[in-house]
Each structure stands twice: as structure tokens, then as C-alpha cells.
Amino acid sequence: MDSHGWIKVNEFLETSKNGIWALGDCIGKNMFRHTANYEAEVVSHNLLRARDSTEKEAVDFHAVPHAVFTHPQIAAVGLKEKDAAMAGLRVLVGRARYMDIAMGVAMAEERGMAKVILEEETGRILGASVVGPMAAELVQQVVYLMNTEYQDIMPVIKSQVIHPTINEVLVRAFSELQHSDYKNS
Q1: Is 45 designated active site?
Q2: Could you give the dihedral angle defined by the CA atoms of residues 130, 134, 138 and 141, in that order, rounded to the nearest 10 degrees?
Q3: Of residues 45, 66, 163, 179, which has the active-site annotation?
Q4: CB 106 within 8 A of CB 37
Q5: Rounded-to-integer distance, Cα 180 and Cα 94, Å
Q6: Are 153 and 92 in contact (CB under 8 A)?
Q7: CATH domain 1-61 topology
Q8: 65-88 pLDDT tens trace
């Protein structure tokens, strides 16, 4: 156990006791049902399918989404701008208000907004947050991007987006960064 009473695990969710695994709230990381489900898949693979340590799967917590289902909805994934700065990363930030898009105007959604954070040098998506209707669904789209090989914005920039939809708020936020000076691998 660590100093806070959480069970310590390695990147494969193994404890210090051979053959004992831990997942979910007891390890003290990202205490969400969807994260516990993901951890269960990792443990299942490592316990039942990995024949040796080279076949084990490590957990990856870089893109864990979370949401608060209030009015307005609040959702986020990845790093916040201040966390990225504390980690010494130089970032680009794109913002869009729901009122910047046709559906936001039609909904009269004056408070909604989306914010996306990219690493300046690489263009890698570091995080996003959305406040407003369907925030959780919008953030989930960023989760998918963060789990692609390059973790960049080009799939959004190059895609046609049905108009008018609330999805356009993310496109607008990412589009602010389209011409930024970063290496898009």
C-alpha cells in the first residue's frame, strides 16, 4: 500500500505479490466505472492471454475522460492548460463558444464553450474540456483522437461535419490551431 492507503500496482496492474492483481477504485487512480472496465480488460489480457512478460499490456491513462452531468454539462480529458505548463510543456490553446456555430445560436446556448490543448512542438493533443449541452459526447470524440497513432487534429480538420450540429464547436476550436506553427507528423 502507498502512504494514502491505495494498493500499489505496476504498469500491468500487478501488485508486489506475485500473481495478485488490483484494479478499480482500490488503486486510487481515475475512479470511474469506465476506467475500471478498461483496467479489467488489461488484467484479463495479462492474466489469461499473455504467455510471458513481453506480451503483457500496460495501462495507458493519458486519455481518461470524465463528465459531470449537471446543467450545463462539464466534461474533460487529458491535461488542463495549467497542468501542461507545470509539466514544462509549451502549448497551443484553441477555444470556441457554442454561439460561434449555427447550432449553438439555434439552441441559444450563450454559456457553452470548448477548449482544446495541443503540444506546440508536435501538435499532439494533450487535452480538452467542454462546458455545455452534450459535453460528454463532444469530449469522447477527442478521446478517440488522443488514442490514434499521431494524436493530432488532422482527422477533424480534414473531415466534413454535418451542419448544423453541435460537433462544429470542436471543429471551430481545433481550426483555430490549424495554421499554428507545429510539426504535424
Answers
A1: no
A2: 150
A3: 163
A4: no
A5: 10
A6: no
A7: FAD/NAD(P)-binding domain (3.50.50)
A8: 999 999 999 999 999 999 999 999
